[in-house]
Structures are given as structure tokens and as C-alpha cells.
Amino acid sequence: MENKGEKLRKLFFSTLYLSAFTFGGGYVIVSLMKKKFVDEYHWLNEDEMLDLVAIAQSAPGPIAVNGAIVIGYRLMGIIGSIVAILATILPPFVIITIISLCYEIFIQNQIIALMLQGMQVGVGAVIFNVVFDMSKQIKGYFSWIILILSFIASYIFEINVAYIILVCILIGIVQSIMGVKNDLS
Predict the structure, then answer these.
(1) Is residue 62 a contact partner of residue 47, using CB atoms and an 8 Å limit?
(2) Which of 59, 58, 71 is nearest to 18 (CA)?
(3) N or C: which end of the chain has fewer CB within 10 A?
């Protein structure tokens, strides 16, 4: 059993590492957080991770920071949230500071431009992997219907994602009040 200091140290360096070497936004880091905190450390189970991701997505702000807040809090309370937030924002802060100081040089460098184009392809693959992994956890026909309708509303009818999230929250509240279980699979 790990002591509190050791667990905080692991939390800090894990979120620092994930933040420093994750390109492509919050959805990419979510997959890596799952691998680290669920698969490697066994601090969370898959259902807890999905719930924490849902909370992180529902809150305003960057999903990587929101994810760090909820995971840190779930693992170690307020101090865990603070440690995870600091570790998550430190790498982008340093990197953006350096890039802003050297912006003119970076923007004119063909090698960096090609590297960024290559990274876009990798980010797309990682985001696809996140969606695929998360979709394996969906249980019940009703959830699949909500998923498909949300996708259609967002990408075909271009309805703002905030409205889709609010509707899904309302559906969840109604299901909870009515005592409806989502085990229709």
C-alpha cells in the first residue's frame, strides 16, 4: 500500500508526463489517463474513469485540466486536485512561453511546419482510439440511440455541443427520477 506522499508524487509525475507529451487536446490525454490510472496503477476502475471523463467534459474549460481536477480529487481530495492541476498546466505553460518567444523563427521553419502536419495525423488516430475505447463501455440500446442522435445533431445539423450536453443531462435526470435502468442490451 502506497503512502499519501508517494501517491501524490506518482500523481504529480504521471499528470506532468501526460501533459508534457500529449499533443492534440484533452481527448487524447483522456485515453492516456485511462491507461495510466486504470490499467497501470489500478487507482480507478473503468466505470469510475468514464464518470470522471463525463464530469470533465460537462464542466467549462479545457478537458485536460478538468480531468486532472476530478481525477486528483477522486484519488487524494483537494490536495490531489491541486497537485494534478499544477502538473497538468506546467508543461503547456512552459512550452507556450518558449514558442511565443521564438514565434517568428518557428513560423518560418519548414521542418517545424511539416512536423506539425505529421502530428495532426497522429492526433486524429489517437482521438479515434479514444472514441473506440469509450464506445466499448456503452451498455444498452438507449445509450447507443443517444450516441447516434447526438452525433447526427452535432455533425449533420451543426447543433451546438452545449445544447446536446444539456439535453443528455436532462435525459439522465429523467431516467434517474423514473428509476429507469440502462440495461436493455
Answers:
(1) no
(2) 71
(3) N
String of DSSP letters for 131-156: HHHHHTT--SHHHHHHHHHHHIIIII
Name residue 12's amino acid.
F
Using DSSP, state whether 184 is helix, strand or coil: coil
| 3-class DSSP state of 78 | helix
pTM of the entire structure? 0.60
pLDDT (tens digit per residue) in 18-62 = 888 877 666 677 778 888 999 999 999 988 988 888 888 888 888
Q: Is the C-alpha dihedral spanning 160, 33, 42, 86 positive or negative?
A: negative
Distance from C-alpha of 131 to C-alpha of 74, rounded to nearest angstrom? 23
Backbone angles phi, psi at 11, to 5 degrees: -60, -45
Q: Counting every residue, how long is the chain?
A: 185
Residue 83 has a pLDDT of 96
First vs last C-alpha separation in the chain: 38
What is the torsion angle, in degrees rounded to the nearest 10, for the CA atoms of residue 55, residue 58, residue 59 and residue 64?
70
pLDDT of residue 184: 46
How many of the other CB atoms lie within 10 Å of CB of 42?
8
Q: How far is the CA of 180 from the CAs of 37, 63, 139, in angstroms?
A: 30, 29, 13
Helix 161-178 / helix 141-151 crossing angle, nearest 10 deg: 160
Q: How many Å apart are CA 176 and CA 142, to the nearest integer?
A: 14
